[in-house]
Specification:
The chain has four helices and 27 strands.
Length: 462
Amino acid sequence: MKKSFFSFALLLAASGAEAASRSDFPVSSSEMISNPSRGGSFSGDVGLDSSSFLYTSDSRGTQATTFKASIKGKSDSHYFHQEGELTLYSFVTQKPQVGFEAPELYASTHRGLLGNFTLSFGRKLQNWSQLDGTWRMMSLWSPRWTWDELHPQVVGMTGVFLNFETPRFKFVLYGSPIAIPERGTPIAEENGNIVSPNPFWKPLPSTLNVLGADTPIRYSLMMPSITQILLRPNFAMKARYEFERGFFVSANTGVLPVHMVQMAAEPYVSTSGSSGILEVNIRPQLPMRNINTLEAGYQDPKGQYQAWISGSYEQPFRFENQANWLNPIITPSTVLSAGMKAMIRSDLTVEGSVLAVNEEPFVRNSKLPNVNVDLPSRFPLKRGVQVAGNWRVSDRTGTDAAWIHDLMNGNHFASVNLQHTIPGPRLTLGVGMDLILAQNNQGWIGHYYGDDRIRGWLKYAF
Protein backbone atom coordinates (compact mmCIF):
# COMPACT_ATOMS: atom_id res chain seq x y z
CA MET A 1 0.00 0.00 0.00
CA LYS A 2 1.41 3.34 -1.00
CA LYS A 3 -0.02 6.82 -0.52
CA SER A 4 1.81 9.89 -1.76
CA PHE A 5 1.69 13.66 -1.76
CA PHE A 6 3.05 13.30 -5.25
CA SER A 7 -0.11 11.59 -6.45
CA PHE A 8 -2.16 14.67 -5.91
CA ALA A 9 0.69 16.94 -7.02
CA LEU A 10 0.34 15.38 -10.46
CA LEU A 11 -3.34 16.21 -10.45
CA LEU A 12 -2.43 19.80 -9.69
CA ALA A 13 0.32 20.02 -12.27
CA ALA A 14 -1.68 22.21 -14.58
CA SER A 15 -1.12 24.92 -12.09
CA GLY A 16 3.94 26.62 -11.29
CA ALA A 17 9.80 26.99 -12.11
CA GLU A 18 12.03 29.69 -11.36
CA ALA A 19 10.48 33.12 -10.69
CA ALA A 20 12.40 35.90 -12.31
CA SER A 21 13.29 38.92 -10.27
CA ARG A 22 10.80 41.68 -11.05
CA SER A 23 9.74 45.08 -9.77
CA ASP A 24 6.60 45.63 -7.70
CA PHE A 25 3.40 45.22 -9.70
CA PRO A 26 5.36 44.21 -12.82
CA VAL A 27 4.11 45.35 -16.19
CA SER A 28 3.56 42.20 -18.21
CA SER A 29 4.27 41.95 -21.90
CA SER A 30 0.54 42.18 -22.56
CA GLU A 31 0.38 45.57 -20.83
CA MET A 32 3.11 46.93 -23.11
CA ILE A 33 1.26 46.09 -26.32
CA SER A 34 -0.75 49.03 -27.62
CA ASN A 35 -1.57 47.53 -31.03
CA PRO A 36 -1.26 43.77 -30.54
CA SER A 37 -1.09 41.48 -33.54
CA ARG A 38 -2.06 37.85 -33.69
CA GLY A 39 0.79 35.40 -33.25
CA GLY A 40 2.88 33.62 -30.70
CA SER A 41 6.31 32.39 -29.76
CA PHE A 42 7.71 29.40 -27.91
CA SER A 43 11.06 28.61 -26.30
CA GLY A 44 12.43 26.09 -23.88
CA ASP A 45 15.43 24.43 -22.31
CA VAL A 46 16.57 21.04 -21.05
CA GLY A 47 19.35 20.30 -18.62
CA LEU A 48 20.84 18.45 -15.66
CA ASP A 49 21.52 19.74 -12.15
CA SER A 50 23.82 17.54 -10.07
CA SER A 51 24.73 17.81 -6.37
CA SER A 52 27.67 16.10 -4.67
CA PHE A 53 27.36 16.13 -0.89
CA LEU A 54 30.48 16.67 1.20
CA TYR A 55 29.34 14.36 4.01
CA THR A 56 27.82 10.89 4.01
CA SER A 57 24.44 10.25 5.58
CA ASP A 58 22.24 7.24 6.33
CA SER A 59 19.20 9.11 4.96
CA ARG A 60 20.54 9.93 1.45
CA GLY A 61 23.25 9.13 -1.03
CA THR A 62 26.33 11.22 -1.69
CA GLN A 63 25.01 12.43 -5.06
CA ALA A 64 21.68 13.54 -6.51
CA THR A 65 20.94 14.58 -10.10
CA THR A 66 17.78 16.17 -11.47
CA PHE A 67 16.69 16.28 -15.11
CA LYS A 68 14.74 19.42 -15.95
CA ALA A 69 12.84 20.34 -19.11
CA SER A 70 10.92 23.58 -19.48
CA ILE A 71 8.80 25.13 -22.22
CA LYS A 72 7.56 28.72 -22.34
CA GLY A 73 4.99 30.23 -24.65
CA LYS A 74 3.34 33.55 -25.47
CA SER A 75 0.56 34.34 -27.86
CA ASP A 76 -1.64 37.32 -28.69
CA SER A 77 -5.06 37.78 -30.18
CA HIS A 78 -6.90 41.03 -30.77
CA TYR A 79 -8.15 41.26 -27.18
CA PHE A 80 -6.04 38.87 -25.10
CA HIS A 81 -2.46 37.98 -24.26
CA GLN A 82 -1.71 34.41 -23.15
CA GLU A 83 1.47 33.36 -21.39
CA GLY A 84 2.65 30.25 -19.64
CA GLU A 85 5.52 28.02 -18.58
CA LEU A 86 5.47 24.31 -17.80
CA THR A 87 8.45 22.53 -16.28
CA LEU A 88 9.12 18.82 -15.75
CA TYR A 89 11.49 17.62 -13.03
CA SER A 90 12.79 14.09 -12.50
CA PHE A 91 15.43 12.60 -10.22
CA VAL A 92 18.04 10.68 -12.23
CA THR A 93 20.14 9.19 -9.44
CA GLN A 94 17.31 8.46 -7.01
CA LYS A 95 14.18 6.35 -7.13
CA PRO A 96 12.26 7.58 -10.22
CA GLN A 97 9.89 10.44 -9.42
CA VAL A 98 8.48 13.04 -11.79
CA GLY A 99 7.19 16.49 -10.85
CA PHE A 100 5.45 19.16 -12.88
CA GLU A 101 5.14 22.85 -12.13
CA ALA A 102 3.86 25.94 -13.89
CA PRO A 103 4.86 29.25 -12.27
CA GLU A 104 2.58 31.10 -14.68
CA LEU A 105 -0.24 29.98 -16.96
CA TYR A 106 -2.74 32.74 -17.65
CA ALA A 107 -4.69 34.85 -20.14
CA SER A 108 -4.96 38.62 -19.74
CA THR A 109 -6.77 41.44 -21.48
CA HIS A 110 -4.56 43.89 -23.33
CA ARG A 111 -3.79 47.23 -21.75
CA GLY A 112 -6.29 49.85 -22.83
CA LEU A 113 -9.06 47.39 -23.65
CA LEU A 114 -10.72 48.07 -20.26
CA GLY A 115 -9.24 51.52 -19.67
CA ASN A 116 -6.88 51.45 -16.68
CA PHE A 117 -7.99 47.92 -15.78
CA THR A 118 -6.59 44.57 -16.89
CA LEU A 119 -8.29 41.27 -16.15
CA SER A 120 -6.32 38.00 -15.90
CA PHE A 121 -7.38 34.37 -15.42
CA GLY A 122 -5.16 31.46 -14.38
CA ARG A 123 -1.89 31.16 -12.48
CA LYS A 124 0.04 34.42 -12.38
CA LEU A 125 3.11 35.72 -10.57
CA GLN A 126 2.36 38.87 -8.60
CA ASN A 127 4.86 40.68 -6.39
CA TRP A 128 2.77 40.83 -3.23
CA SER A 129 5.53 41.87 -0.82
CA GLN A 130 9.19 42.77 -0.61
CA LEU A 131 9.64 40.20 2.16
CA ASP A 132 8.57 37.25 -0.01
CA GLY A 133 11.22 37.89 -2.63
CA THR A 134 13.96 38.30 0.01
CA TRP A 135 13.13 35.58 2.57
CA ARG A 136 11.94 32.78 0.29
CA MET A 137 11.69 30.19 3.06
CA MET A 138 8.87 32.23 4.67
CA SER A 139 6.15 31.78 2.02
CA LEU A 140 4.17 34.64 3.52
CA TRP A 141 2.13 35.68 0.47
CA SER A 142 3.28 33.72 -2.57
CA PRO A 143 3.57 29.91 -2.69
CA ARG A 144 6.78 28.13 -3.71
CA TRP A 145 8.08 25.07 -5.56
CA THR A 146 10.45 23.17 -3.24
CA TRP A 147 12.14 20.50 -5.38
CA ASP A 148 15.43 22.04 -4.18
CA GLU A 149 14.59 23.00 -0.62
CA LEU A 150 17.66 25.18 -0.14
CA HIS A 151 16.74 27.25 -3.19
CA PRO A 152 12.92 27.36 -3.32
CA GLN A 153 11.26 29.04 -6.31
CA VAL A 154 8.37 31.46 -5.99
CA VAL A 155 5.30 30.57 -8.10
CA GLY A 156 2.01 32.31 -8.76
CA MET A 157 -1.40 31.84 -7.20
CA THR A 158 -4.27 30.51 -9.32
CA GLY A 159 -7.47 32.51 -9.77
CA VAL A 160 -8.79 35.78 -11.17
CA PHE A 161 -6.73 38.99 -11.03
CA LEU A 162 -8.10 42.49 -11.57
CA ASN A 163 -5.38 45.14 -11.88
CA PHE A 164 -5.87 48.91 -11.92
CA GLU A 165 -2.92 51.18 -12.70
CA THR A 166 -2.22 54.90 -13.02
CA PRO A 167 1.23 56.57 -12.98
CA ARG A 168 1.08 56.89 -9.17
CA PHE A 169 -1.49 54.40 -7.91
CA LYS A 170 -1.62 50.63 -8.45
CA PHE A 171 -4.20 48.19 -7.18
CA VAL A 172 -4.73 44.44 -7.57
CA LEU A 173 -7.65 42.29 -6.47
CA TYR A 174 -7.33 38.50 -6.49
CA GLY A 175 -9.91 35.81 -5.81
CA SER A 176 -10.18 32.06 -6.26
CA PRO A 177 -12.46 29.18 -5.22
CA ILE A 178 -9.42 26.88 -4.91
CA ALA A 179 -6.13 26.87 -3.00
CA ILE A 180 -3.23 24.77 -4.26
CA PRO A 181 -0.74 23.88 -1.49
CA GLU A 182 3.00 24.12 -1.96
CA ARG A 183 4.64 21.03 -3.36
CA GLY A 184 7.92 19.85 -4.82
CA THR A 185 9.10 17.30 -2.26
CA PRO A 186 7.33 14.01 -3.07
CA ILE A 187 6.75 11.81 -0.02
CA ALA A 188 5.00 8.47 0.30
CA GLU A 189 4.06 5.80 2.82
CA GLU A 190 6.17 2.68 2.30
CA ASN A 191 6.52 -0.33 4.62
CA GLY A 192 5.36 1.60 7.66
CA ASN A 193 7.61 4.59 7.03
CA ILE A 194 7.35 7.98 5.27
CA VAL A 195 9.98 8.18 2.52
CA SER A 196 11.07 10.56 -0.24
CA PRO A 197 13.65 10.48 -3.05
CA ASN A 198 14.50 14.10 -2.27
CA PRO A 199 17.98 14.17 -0.66
CA PHE A 200 16.88 16.94 1.70
CA TRP A 201 14.07 14.86 3.20
CA LYS A 202 14.80 14.01 6.83
CA PRO A 203 13.37 10.60 7.82
CA LEU A 204 10.98 10.55 10.74
CA PRO A 205 12.31 8.83 13.89
CA SER A 206 12.05 5.02 13.89
CA THR A 207 11.66 4.84 17.68
CA LEU A 208 10.18 7.09 20.34
CA ASN A 209 10.51 7.14 24.10
CA VAL A 210 7.14 6.17 25.61
CA LEU A 211 6.93 5.91 29.41
CA GLY A 212 10.72 5.59 29.61
CA ALA A 213 11.07 2.83 26.99
CA ASP A 214 12.19 3.02 23.35
CA THR A 215 9.21 1.93 21.26
CA PRO A 216 9.34 1.17 17.51
CA ILE A 217 7.14 3.35 15.30
CA ARG A 218 5.00 2.43 12.30
CA TYR A 219 3.68 5.38 10.23
CA SER A 220 0.53 5.75 8.12
CA LEU A 221 -0.14 8.71 5.84
CA MET A 222 -3.77 9.84 6.17
CA MET A 223 -4.38 11.90 3.05
CA PRO A 224 -7.31 14.35 2.92
CA SER A 225 -9.66 14.11 -0.04
CA ILE A 226 -8.86 16.14 -3.14
CA THR A 227 -11.88 18.38 -2.42
CA GLN A 228 -10.56 19.13 1.09
CA ILE A 229 -7.20 20.01 -0.43
CA LEU A 230 -8.45 22.24 -3.24
CA LEU A 231 -11.83 23.71 -2.26
CA ARG A 232 -10.65 26.50 0.02
CA PRO A 233 -11.92 29.87 -1.30
CA ASN A 234 -9.42 32.70 -0.79
CA PHE A 235 -8.84 36.30 -1.82
CA ALA A 236 -6.28 39.09 -1.50
CA MET A 237 -5.90 42.74 -2.45
CA LYS A 238 -3.04 45.18 -2.56
CA ALA A 239 -2.86 48.95 -3.02
CA ARG A 240 0.36 50.83 -3.67
CA TYR A 241 0.99 54.56 -4.00
CA GLU A 242 4.25 55.98 -5.37
CA PHE A 243 5.15 59.53 -4.44
CA GLU A 244 6.88 61.90 -6.80
CA ARG A 245 10.39 61.66 -5.31
CA GLY A 246 10.60 57.88 -5.12
CA PHE A 247 8.92 57.09 -1.80
CA PHE A 248 6.17 54.46 -1.80
CA VAL A 249 3.68 52.87 0.57
CA SER A 250 1.63 49.72 0.07
CA ALA A 251 -1.01 47.82 2.02
CA ASN A 252 -2.22 44.22 1.60
CA THR A 253 -5.06 42.27 3.14
CA GLY A 254 -6.41 38.83 2.43
CA VAL A 255 -7.79 35.49 3.49
CA LEU A 256 -5.27 32.93 2.21
CA PRO A 257 -4.18 29.35 2.88
CA VAL A 258 -1.03 28.59 4.79
CA HIS A 259 0.85 27.59 1.64
CA MET A 260 3.18 25.14 3.40
CA VAL A 261 1.39 21.90 4.27
CA GLN A 262 1.42 21.47 8.05
CA MET A 263 1.65 18.06 9.72
CA ALA A 264 -0.10 16.57 12.72
CA ALA A 265 0.88 13.26 14.35
CA GLU A 266 -1.71 10.96 15.92
CA PRO A 267 0.14 8.32 18.00
CA TYR A 268 -1.34 5.30 19.73
CA VAL A 269 0.23 2.11 21.05
CA SER A 270 -0.73 -1.12 19.26
CA THR A 271 -0.81 -4.21 21.46
CA SER A 272 -1.81 -6.66 18.72
CA GLY A 273 1.73 -8.04 18.42
CA SER A 274 4.04 -9.68 20.92
CA SER A 275 5.49 -6.28 21.81
CA GLY A 276 3.94 -2.86 21.73
CA ILE A 277 4.37 -0.82 18.56
CA LEU A 278 3.67 2.88 18.41
CA GLU A 279 1.33 3.50 15.48
CA VAL A 280 1.50 7.11 14.21
CA ASN A 281 -0.98 8.51 11.74
CA ILE A 282 0.52 11.47 9.87
CA ARG A 283 -2.29 13.88 9.05
CA PRO A 284 -1.57 16.73 6.59
CA GLN A 285 -3.16 19.97 7.79
CA LEU A 286 -4.42 22.70 5.46
CA PRO A 287 -5.24 25.73 7.64
CA MET A 288 -6.34 29.16 6.44
CA ARG A 289 -5.38 32.59 7.79
CA ASN A 290 -6.24 36.26 7.80
CA ILE A 291 -3.18 38.29 6.84
CA ASN A 292 -2.45 42.02 6.67
CA THR A 293 0.78 43.62 5.46
CA LEU A 294 1.99 47.22 5.43
CA GLU A 295 5.19 48.18 3.59
CA ALA A 296 6.93 51.47 2.86
CA GLY A 297 10.20 52.48 1.30
CA TYR A 298 12.18 54.46 -1.20
CA GLN A 299 13.19 53.63 -4.77
CA ASP A 300 15.80 55.81 -6.43
CA PRO A 301 14.32 57.03 -9.75
CA LYS A 302 17.62 56.03 -11.42
CA GLY A 303 17.35 52.50 -10.04
CA GLN A 304 20.58 52.65 -8.05
CA TYR A 305 19.21 52.43 -4.52
CA GLN A 306 16.23 50.94 -2.71
CA ALA A 307 15.23 50.67 0.95
CA TRP A 308 12.09 49.18 2.49
CA ILE A 309 10.40 48.14 5.71
CA SER A 310 7.66 45.53 6.06
CA GLY A 311 5.24 44.52 8.81
CA SER A 312 2.65 41.71 8.72
CA TYR A 313 0.15 40.18 11.11
CA GLU A 314 -1.56 36.87 10.46
CA GLN A 315 -4.25 34.95 12.35
CA PRO A 316 -4.71 31.26 11.44
CA PHE A 317 -8.11 29.57 11.42
CA ARG A 318 -9.74 26.35 10.18
CA PHE A 319 -6.99 24.48 11.92
CA GLU A 320 -8.07 20.99 12.94
CA ASN A 321 -6.90 19.94 16.37
CA GLN A 322 -7.70 17.04 18.69
CA ALA A 323 -6.45 16.26 22.18
CA ASN A 324 -4.78 13.03 21.01
CA TRP A 325 -2.89 14.76 18.16
CA LEU A 326 0.54 16.36 18.26
CA ASN A 327 0.10 19.44 16.08
CA PRO A 328 2.70 21.81 14.68
CA ILE A 329 2.87 25.13 16.44
CA ILE A 330 0.75 27.68 14.57
CA THR A 331 -0.51 30.80 16.34
CA PRO A 332 -1.24 34.47 15.53
CA SER A 333 2.09 35.99 14.52
CA THR A 334 3.78 39.29 13.73
CA VAL A 335 6.44 39.35 11.00
CA LEU A 336 8.79 42.34 10.69
CA SER A 337 11.53 42.88 8.12
CA ALA A 338 13.61 45.67 6.61
CA GLY A 339 16.12 45.73 3.80
CA MET A 340 18.10 47.71 1.28
CA LYS A 341 19.58 47.19 -2.16
CA ALA A 342 22.27 49.25 -3.88
CA MET A 343 23.95 49.23 -7.27
CA ILE A 344 27.61 49.81 -6.43
CA ARG A 345 28.40 50.04 -10.12
CA SER A 346 26.68 48.97 -13.33
CA ASP A 347 27.79 45.32 -12.96
CA LEU A 348 27.69 44.92 -9.16
CA THR A 349 24.62 44.90 -6.87
CA VAL A 350 24.51 44.19 -3.13
CA GLU A 351 21.58 43.88 -0.73
CA GLY A 352 20.90 43.12 2.90
CA SER A 353 17.91 42.58 5.18
CA VAL A 354 16.86 41.60 8.70
CA LEU A 355 13.90 39.49 9.86
CA ALA A 356 12.04 39.10 13.15
CA VAL A 357 9.00 36.87 13.81
CA ASN A 358 7.00 36.87 17.03
CA GLU A 359 4.53 34.02 17.56
CA GLU A 360 1.98 34.19 20.36
CA PRO A 361 2.42 31.53 23.08
CA PHE A 362 1.13 28.10 22.14
CA VAL A 363 -0.71 25.83 24.56
CA ARG A 364 -1.35 22.26 23.44
CA ASN A 365 -4.45 20.58 24.83
CA SER A 366 -3.00 17.10 24.84
CA LYS A 367 -3.92 13.73 26.36
CA LEU A 368 -0.40 12.54 25.57
CA PRO A 369 1.72 13.96 28.41
CA ASN A 370 4.40 11.26 28.07
CA VAL A 371 4.80 11.42 24.29
CA ASN A 372 6.55 14.31 22.58
CA VAL A 373 7.57 14.95 18.97
CA ASP A 374 9.64 17.94 17.91
CA LEU A 375 7.29 19.39 15.28
CA PRO A 376 8.30 22.45 13.28
CA SER A 377 6.64 25.81 13.74
CA ARG A 378 4.76 27.73 11.09
CA PHE A 379 7.87 29.86 10.42
CA PRO A 380 11.16 27.99 9.89
CA LEU A 381 13.24 31.12 10.61
CA LYS A 382 12.36 33.57 13.40
CA ARG A 383 15.37 35.89 13.71
CA GLY A 384 17.69 36.34 10.76
CA VAL A 385 20.17 38.50 8.88
CA GLN A 386 20.79 38.12 5.16
CA VAL A 387 23.43 39.63 2.84
CA ALA A 388 23.59 38.91 -0.90
CA GLY A 389 25.33 40.19 -3.99
CA ASN A 390 25.38 39.78 -7.76
CA TRP A 391 28.36 40.53 -10.01
CA ARG A 392 28.00 40.52 -13.78
CA VAL A 393 31.58 39.63 -14.73
CA SER A 394 30.87 39.92 -18.46
CA ASP A 395 27.96 39.68 -20.88
CA ARG A 396 28.23 35.88 -20.69
CA THR A 397 29.46 35.28 -17.13
CA GLY A 398 27.86 36.12 -13.80
CA THR A 399 28.25 35.19 -10.17
CA ASP A 400 26.10 35.60 -7.06
CA ALA A 401 26.53 34.90 -3.37
CA ALA A 402 24.31 34.92 -0.30
CA TRP A 403 24.79 34.49 3.46
CA ILE A 404 21.99 33.92 5.99
CA HIS A 405 22.51 33.92 9.75
CA ASP A 406 19.93 32.41 12.10
CA LEU A 407 20.27 34.69 15.11
CA MET A 408 18.14 32.49 17.38
CA ASN A 409 20.04 29.22 16.83
CA GLY A 410 23.46 30.60 15.86
CA ASN A 411 23.56 28.79 12.49
CA HIS A 412 24.89 30.03 9.14
CA PHE A 413 24.07 29.25 5.50
CA ALA A 414 26.32 30.43 2.64
CA SER A 415 25.80 29.91 -1.09
CA VAL A 416 28.03 30.89 -4.05
CA ASN A 417 27.24 30.33 -7.74
CA LEU A 418 29.10 30.98 -11.00
CA GLN A 419 27.43 30.68 -14.40
CA HIS A 420 28.68 31.06 -17.99
CA THR A 421 26.71 31.04 -21.25
CA ILE A 422 28.15 29.80 -24.56
CA PRO A 423 26.16 31.66 -27.25
CA GLY A 424 26.83 29.40 -30.25
CA PRO A 425 25.31 26.11 -29.06
CA ARG A 426 23.20 28.07 -26.51
CA LEU A 427 24.65 26.16 -23.58
CA THR A 428 24.76 27.40 -19.99
CA LEU A 429 27.33 25.93 -17.60
CA GLY A 430 27.22 26.54 -13.86
CA VAL A 431 28.92 25.55 -10.64
CA GLY A 432 27.98 26.39 -7.06
CA MET A 433 28.51 25.53 -3.42
CA ASP A 434 26.15 25.48 -0.41
CA LEU A 435 27.68 25.46 3.08
CA ILE A 436 25.75 24.89 6.33
CA LEU A 437 27.68 25.99 9.41
CA ALA A 438 25.41 24.81 12.21
CA GLN A 439 25.74 24.27 15.95
CA ASN A 440 22.50 22.25 16.12
CA ASN A 441 19.71 20.91 13.92
CA GLN A 442 17.16 23.56 14.89
CA GLY A 443 15.53 26.09 12.55
CA TRP A 444 15.58 26.35 8.78
CA ILE A 445 19.38 26.17 8.52
CA GLY A 446 19.90 23.54 11.22
CA HIS A 447 17.36 21.26 9.52
CA TYR A 448 19.89 20.82 6.68
CA TYR A 449 22.89 20.31 8.96
CA GLY A 450 25.36 18.02 7.13
CA ASP A 451 23.91 18.70 3.66
CA ASP A 452 26.87 20.82 2.47
CA ARG A 453 27.29 20.26 -1.27
CA ILE A 454 28.94 21.23 -4.53
CA ARG A 455 26.54 21.75 -7.44
CA GLY A 456 27.02 21.67 -11.18
CA TRP A 457 24.49 22.24 -13.94
CA LEU A 458 24.27 22.17 -17.70
CA LYS A 459 21.39 23.66 -19.68
CA TYR A 460 20.62 23.76 -23.41
CA ALA A 461 18.17 26.41 -24.68
CA PHE A 462 16.09 26.02 -27.84
